[in-house]
Amino acid sequence: MVNFGKIKLISRSFTTLSSAPLRICVVGSGPAGFYTAEKILKAHEGVEVDIIDRLPTPFGLVRSGVAPDHPETKIVTNQFSRVAQNDRCSFFGNVYLGSSISLPELREMYNAVVLAYGSESDRSLGIPGEELAGVHAAREFVWWYNGHPDCRNLSPDLKNTDTAVILGQGNVALDIARILLRPTEELAKTDIASHALAALEESSIRKVYLVGRRGPVQAACTAKELREVLGIKNLAVHIQQADLVTKPADEIEMKNNRIRRRVYELLSKAVPPGHTPVLGQRELHFVFFRKPDKFLESDDRSGHLGGVRLEKTVLKGDDELVNQVAVGTGVYEDISCGLALKSIGYKSVAIDDLPFDNYKGIVPNVGGRVVTDSLQDHMQIETGLYVCGWLKRGPTGIIATNLYCAEETLACISDDINKGLLTSNSPKPGREGLLQLLDSRNTKVVSLDAWKKIDTEEIRLGHIKNKPREKLTTWEDLLKVASE
Amino acid sequence: MFISRFYRQGAHTIKSLIKAPAFIPKTSHIPVVHNRHLPALRHESFCSGAAKQDSEEGNQENQKINVTFVDKDGEETHIKVPVGMSMLEAAHENDIELEGACEGSLACSTCHVIVMDMAQYNKLPDPTDEENDMLDLAFGLTETSRLGCQIIAEPELDGLHLAIPSATRNFAVDGFKPKPH
Ligand SMILES: Cc1cc2nc3c(=O)[nH]c(=O)nc-3n(C[C@H](O)[C@H](O)[C@H](O)COP(=O)(O)OP(=O)(O)OC[C@H]3O[C@@H](n4cnc5c(N)ncnc54)[C@H](O)[C@@H]3O)c2cc1C
Ligand SMILES: NC(=O)c1ccc[n+]([C@@H]2O[C@H](COP(=O)([O-])OP(=O)(O)OC[C@H]3O[C@@H](n4cnc5c(N)ncnc54)[C@H](OP(=O)(O)O)[C@@H]3O)[C@@H](O)[C@H]2O)c1
Ligand code: FES
Hints:
The complex is a heterodimer. Chain A is of the alpha/beta class. Chain A has two domains: 22-120 and 348-483, NAD(P)-binding Rossmann-like Domain (Rossmann fold); 121-342, FAD/NAD(P)-binding domain. Helix content of chain A is 35%, strand content 20%. Chain A has helices spanning 2-18, 31-43, 61-64, 76-85, 103-109, 138-145, 171-181, 184-187, 194-201, 223-230, 248-256, 258-268, 390-393, 399-418, 430-440, 448-464, 475-482, and strands at 22-27, 47-52, 89-92, 112-115, 121-122, 135-137, 163-167, 207-211, 235-239, 282-287, 290-297, 305-316, 325-336, 339-342, 346-347, 365-366, 369-372, 380-387. In chain A, the strands form four sheets. In chain A, strands 3-2-1-4-18-17-16 form a seven-stranded mixed β-sheet, sandwiched between helices. In chain A, helix 2 (31-43) packs parallel to helix 14, helix 7 packs parallel to helix 10 and helix 11 (248-256) packs across helix 12 (258-268). The radius of gyration of chain A is 24 Å and the shape is globular. Chain B is an alpha+beta fold. Chain B has helices at 2-18, 38-46, 57-60, 87-93, 118-123, 129-135, and strands at residues 64-70, 76-82, 112-115, 145-147, 160-163. A five-stranded mixed β-sheet of chain B has the order 2-1-5-3-4. In chain B, a hairpin with a 5-residue loop joins strand 1 and strand 2. Chain B starts with a helix and ends in an 18-residue tail after the last strand. The chains are: A alpha/beta, B alpha+beta. Chains A and B meet through helix 4, helix 10, helix 12 and helix 14 of A and helix 1 and helix 6 of B. Residues 27-33, 52-55, 60-61, 65-66, 70, 73, 96-98, 116-118, 120, 142, 172, 175, 389-390, 397-399, 401-402 of chain A line the site of flavin-adenine dinucleotide. Residues 88, 100-102, 104, 106-111, 134, 147, 149 of chain B line the site of FE2/S2 (inorganic) cluster (FES). Chain A: One of its GO terms (cellular component) is mitochondrion. Chain A: Pfam families: Pyr_redox_2 (PF07992).
């Protein structure tokens, strides 16, 4: 059986080789896009894959999400770069699906399109005061310190307050807490954007609150990130001992989930008994069982954030099959702060002519095949249109999750090739057509070689400052270096 | 025995918490896959607590052990692995498809392998907290899961069988099921 699969694969490769290649376009060059491209290229010898991205730079959140002090995590870009070097693969940056080119146009040019453009907006809290100066989405703040050109000018005010409140306790929230609290001498050796490093060096923030609407057993972070934030030099960690008391439902959750158990273990040992904080230490407060109620305006600075009102919660639901949910108790308390970061999850953006599930914030799909209408009975498959990564599953999971996600999407593509649903019998213009159209629209495409120029320049600039890389953070600089 | 190992791991976690380093050692600039001696070094730095007893250090250099990889389709590949080399590196040198997104720097969990024999699993040094943190996130975790980049060939591991878990197939259905403890 096993060998049979392999033989089939080889014979398929021969048949496709003789005719025009099957042309597939992958939209988005994050982990989902690159893993899908890699797997298609490996499984199908006669296929050409073009990867487009709206940015002049590849790698998605590996470049603009993964924290600057996590260089080991970014090593995966070596693998992605090898994929991009494949003779049958091309990278075209600065190509924006939905504005440089529409989805129907793209589908016209390729035999198949795989959408992997991630989640570039934010889940909303829907509480009063979100418009106040000093309230930011985590995504924007992360893009700012990671030098994403769209948030170059965010300029979060870190100088007029000593307190930041982060809403949410996922890994993104912990990343942000670490960036705010870590000694800047340590950050200076990373590829953090220089504008962010300068602002952090002048930051007056001493206290960071990480606020979760549920308890320590339900904290969404993982042990690795938690261990790291707890290990920050010269940091006093605060947790209310009463919050660490568990209920039978918590015990069940921990029994069924190794991550929850290990995270709870770390939290419950984070503050040694009898520990008294040293004066002048930075503080990290884990606040549990509190949900955001409203952002409060500052008394002395109109239009600015002065604090966050939280409502105390209790957990409901102790059935082992149902997640415990936070329910408000009508008891409120305020935390004064000048900076609030909403880290409650990302959300994907719809584009024209693409089925989209607004409630879940994903493209409706079955195992990676895009379907119109999520009404189960009338589901219709969009032939030749696939989805992968956060756009397919929602905004959770680590880089590796996208590897398995790509395997699933590949299985759909391979299946459709085998069934003859995707053939190169009706040849498509592919990259030639794409480049012609973009040229006629004066879109400056950033090729792989042009990206390499950016890469080389960033590494050169980084070298001068003793950083692994100094990111170019404006569209102008990126496009200028790319076209040199 | 097996159960006690897991308890020990728990204790391990708690103990090391207080002195937890803010940083795990950085190895990002080391081209791991091309240098056979580095993984061993790294391994030792992570396992500082459980020092290895290298009685036969002298002739270990040239010694090789037999390792069998069982891939996603159940197909076996038998290879010889020099003592001191990591299983990730050995897999790559032998064109075995084991992912290694972070190239052995303990930051990805894609090199997840399942030790197919409990007795062999028990011969391995305990996973460090850092390895356990990554194992937390491994796809299809089992009782005998380890990270391929952290298993270093030792003479006593001769005959090691490692399964590469599949995302699209349920492993248990296809024959191999880790023995319950
Ligand atoms: C702040 C943060 C930190 C993280 N840190 C880690 C970590 O340390 N370790 C880990 O394993 N995981 C981490 N993750 C998770 C990991 O980054 C994601 O699982 C992964 O990046 C999702 O991959 P993706 O390809 O679906 O999306 P993305 O990585 O977001 O890639 C999407 C790509 O599509 C492009 N794009 C968007 N819209 C368009 C358009 N209209 N046209 C063309 N291109 C478009 C974008 O520019 C981007 O390059 C982190 C996530 C976040 C948010
Ligand atoms: N180092 C890493 O491996 C790393 C780093 C960063 C990110 N990532 C991954 O990237 C993914 C995204 O991370 P994330 O932190 O954005 O998401 P996340 O893990 O889903 O966390 C979201 C947090 O927001 C809370 N929340 C959601 N809605 C809320 C509301 N209306 N009010 C109050 N709180 C609310 C959640 O609490 P509830 O649980 O109560 O809903 C949770 O604490 C995760 O899978 C993460 O593991 C990994
Ligand atoms: S290769 Fe990344 S953890 Fe082993």
